[in-house]
Amino acid sequence: MIWMMMALLMPPDPVNLDFSTSGPRITGGLRLKFAVFTLHGDYTLAKYNSLSAGFGIYVR
After folding, report:
1. Is the Cα torsion angle 6, 7, 9, 10 positive or negative in sign?
2. Distance CA 43, CA 33 (A)
3. Is residue 53 part of a domain?
């Protein structure tokens, strides 16, 4: 019974994750390793271009 009341009180999910892909896509990237540190990044050419980059610490 409680879950029914909670379902009525909670708003619907405001995030819409529906998407479709169309057209070609090209992705290129690189990674540089320096002792215990790494730098990495990639770039994607598509309908909406994107760039991502990161930094990492390698501990073994």
Report:
1. positive
2. 19
3. yes
